[in-house]
Amino acid sequence: MASSYSFKYFNVRFPEHHPYVAHVEINRAEKMNAFFEAMWLELRQVFNQLSEDSSVRAIVLSGAGEKAFTAGLDVKAASQGGALADGQSTVDPARKAVHLRRHVLEFQDCITSVERCEKPVIVAMHGFALGLAIDLSTAADVRLCSKDVRFAVKEVDIGLAADIGTLSRLPKVVGSSSWVKEVALSARIFGADEALRVGFVSAVYENRTETISAALKLATLIASKSPVAVQGTKEILNWSRDHSVQDGLRYTGVWNSAALQTADVSAALLSGLQKRTPTFEKL
Fold this sequence. Notes:
Layout: E1 10-13, E2 21-26, H1 37-52, E3 58-63, E4 68-70, H2 75-81, H3 93-116, E5 121-125, E6 128-130, H4 132-139, E7 142-146, E8 150-152, H5 166-173, H6 177-186, H7 192-198, E9 203-205, H8 208-223, H9 227-241, H10 245-259, H11 264-274
Parallel strand pairs: 2-3, 3-5, 4-6, 5-7, 6-8, 7-9
Antiparallel strand pairs: 1-2
Helix pairs in contact: 1-3, 3-4, 4-5, 9-10
């Protein structure tokens, strides 16, 4: 299976003793895992493929090297040929805006592939986790970090309003509008303790290794559950976050009118009664 996951900027592994778990590692440690266009396009390929892989039930996302989960956007690369390049041209501003909008929407969709993925995604962050790291992690389902992590919504420091997901998702991840606006407007660094206090992360671990280990353990626990139930739970939670309670209840009813017909329900109930670990078919 691993041979079908050959990517340039991401390592995709299937760790022994962690059945049905995929470990995705951002693989540009020499540049602190900073992203440029080829990377975010590849990110979408990775998560689209994992989403449809019946041998995968949960995913861990981490960064290679000891320095950073990701330092965010590779500003140097972007300024030399991407949307941030100095556009001293005679192109009509409206026409230039159309092309720029397409570029931003494509970038947004690549990050949204993490959220859109049918499988739960647990992100394990360490070191520098700046800018794009916040976009990525808020698109994930569970966030864990190490004590040495350094977070920042960094975009205002390069003259931008964050446009790849942070400003839309972070207020829904963290309950304090005041805190979200503070960190987004100031681009200040905040650490693991503060991230835990405001609810941005679920737990803090000693170092990168322990954080990834905890993420794999949690992913393995999730992967042991019915994939019908897990995928439905992620779908309904994400839908309900963006809709009213009544809309969420109605969508749950429609979704479960199909999902409740699964054999996984009886398998889980019987296993509970018989005090044995249930096994579930691939989905």
